[in-house]
Structure of Histidine--tRNA ligase:
Amino acid sequence: MAEKIQAVKGMNDLLPPDSAAWEWFDEAVRRVMRRHGYQFIRTPIVEPTALFVRGLGEVTDIVEKEMYSFEDSMNGDRLTLRPEGTAGVVRAVTEHNLLYEGGKRLWYAGPMFRHERPQKGRYRQFHQVGAEVMGHAGPDVDAELILLLRALWRELGLVVGEGDGAYLRLELNSLGEVAERQAHRAALVAHFEAHASLLDEDARRRLHSNPLRILDTKNPAMQPVVEAAPKLIDFLGEASLAHFNAVRAVLDAAGLPYRVNPRLVRGMDYYNLTVFEWVTERLGAQGTVCGGGRYDGLVEQLGGKPAPGVGFGIGVERLMLLLAEAGLLPAPPAPDAYAVVTEAGALPQVLVALDALRAAGVSVLLHPLGAGGPASMKSQFKKADASGARFALIFGADEIARGQVALKPLRAGADAAAAQALKPLAGIADWAGELLPA
């Protein structure tokens, strides 16, 4: 036998019945995005490497350590499997001049790729759902985007806020503008240089290239020196503080609790002003389920005319783990009916009848005949019951000779046989609705 080929480590198959839960999630996202006026955009999985180097920052973990990059053997171009969604959306909006007629509200979904050690909820191929609002600079858009996420959590059944009953908590911060960050950066460097002996190797490497990222360290030994570091919010000017307070005022008015986290910096260099994360304490170390913020300089940075932007990305794998932990994932869908066939010669009439039922909105699963002809009635009914269908459609020789099909309830209790009825094949549209859930 040939050697069995397996999937790449950290890149997983999505199999039934788990795939049904992902479909349920996708449908919830579409409903919420539609209600908020967002349009769907799909960008390529492969982009020029320069897009992420320029957009995310050369000294970010993603660019330095995690990107899947390669050289195109046809023309020598440097290409990368996208590690996140925002840069590609901004590139598409800029390339196609989508802001020519005003701002845009866009959302996307799809696989992303990062070369890191696979662990639960963190994989080399993972999936994101995200939204980007471009062309609008006001704090109202930041707040509306956060409230959109609360609407999605509600749609999924997740309780948000503080306390034992909550599954997600909102954390909020402002990164200010460039000059404010530069002043804060200088203060950070001075602080960490004064405590250089307490820094780990990664922090020392970042000290002069990207000191803000030291604040995001997960090293417990460094927490005291990080907690004592200067806070960016103390360097914010009047305009940045006004923007941040306006976002907070909307969230307060909407009754959405949050924590101001002065150490929240996010992992990409393109952020400014508002940044936020939705976090949970129910998934261990993988606590961030969704993150985002404002990136007003990114469009210009990627070659477009200056335009503001703000967005978020949801880690779908982590969110699905949280929904499973909360007991909110739906059971796999069952067909409305299961077709039991006793005569191979009846197959043409059976398939015509099933086609009419499906056109009327009924989901029907046909028991396969196989090369040896129909299986026994006992075997077919066993499969019908296991399918979860509410009804069996029995296409027996006598019923078909009379132009009928027997309709047998499968979920009505011990006296289900008494409720069996005959239905005409010529008038399927008249009774097809009886097979649908109430």
